[in-house]
Amino acid sequence: MKRRPAVLALLAYVAGILLGNYLNLSTFVLLFFILGILFLLFFSIHEKNYRFIFIIILLTLTGFWRYELKSRDFPINHISHFTGLNDRVGLIGTISRDPDIREDKTFLEVNSRELCVNQKKIKTTGKIILKIKNQANRFNFGDLILVDSYLYSPLPPKNPGAFDYKKYLYSKEIFGCMNIKSDSEVKVLDKGEGNFLILRIIHPLRHYILSSFGRNLSNPHQSILSGFVLGERRGIPGEIYKLFTNTGTLHLLAISGSNVALVVLLFTGLFRIIRVPFKISLILVFPLILIFSNVTGNQPSVVRASIMTSFFLFSLLIERERDLLNIWALAALLILLIYPISLFDVGFQLSFAATLGLIVCIPALENIFLNRIRNRLLRYYIVLPFFVSLSAQLFTYPIIAYYFNTIPLYSLLANLLIVPLTGLVVMVGMISLLTGVLSFNLFLLFVSFNWVCLELIIRILSFFSSLPYAVMKTPSPSYLFILAYYSFLFAFIYQKNLKKLKKAVFI
Predict the structure, then answer these.
(1) CATH code for the part of the protein at 79-190
(2) What is the pLDDT of residues 253-285, one digit of tens each?
(3) What global pTM score does this model have?
């Protein structure tokens, strides 16, 4: 732990968030305790043992305090304080994300500015979700809108074990809902307000990518490619989405570290071709990572990958030693410092669990198995990809079982075939977007190649999904079982005595 202080800091901070989830204390009381610990820490600066204990307590209290600030202790004008009104209200706010447009409805995420209650105007903060019961195409990110309807709190699940929509919205810091029948009930007061970078660069770039795929590929190929490149799932047909779910490959539709790595490799390669010095090319890649993260909607997986990649590149830049587990913990800590509620987001949990599996499992498996394989083709193109898939699956199975009550039995084999194809599709897709600016014929050539790869992916998914017992139904495991499961995994991985290792495998 001395070599990995970020891991210990993360554990202490997460413990504080978990305390905040089960206990409720005033932020003023917590702040008082934090100041008291800082005072004690200052006077015990030379006492190594006391200093360590006080730092751990300080981090735990900070996690508790941040969770309370973000989930309960809102300012008096926060939108959550007005969700119990039994009357219609007028709400003025800014659309804070691209509209989620579906066949029969539209969802708008709105950052509230002002409420009109009984002809009284109140300045407000906080986000709501506006559901329009028809397909609406006239709204854009940054539009200032006015809507009149009932404001209510998100509803909890009606049945035990059902999807908790309220908890899902809370993890996105959305604390209010409004429903209307038609988009004609929404008045657009002003077009295109908001952050200049997002409004003038991020969203036009995202729309260019989606429209380029849409013009030259038909569904489901176009929507699958959009999912692989941008994490855009909304256009994927239900039967195709089910194929990904049943084969344990749904994670490929969420942007991951491989996508960020491809962006880095692609642009550093281009910079090297035009003879940009290595360190300067690394510096130029940082803003590109930021842009890519925003273009993909800052999903938990891409934020995690972007932070980890940035830290890794920075260590290369200053020529310092790199510890992946420490970088992983630092990325999680930074996200949770800003958005502590993200800890309870399934996307955050799956992304960090899968990455942790790769970081801790692959070196252990390499020492035990890979180093004994002399054939390079077998070692790097068959066994290593299998272990990568196995490591990620082992660390995500309990989370998948807990939230989705399913275990895809053929996920290891499906991932072994699909993951390399997906990487190829993403790389070719990115290259096609760059070449499309120079030559339309070259763009069509790359798009045609991608259609063939995407068709092959669909056929492979269909094959594995059609096999008997493709999906095993399972009840949600208890917290005790999940704790025991991960404890066994870590005991297995860090067991240095091979004889004892065999005993652990048997148990």
Answers:
(1) 2.40.50.140
(2) 766 667 788 788 888 888 888 888 888 888 888
(3) 0.83
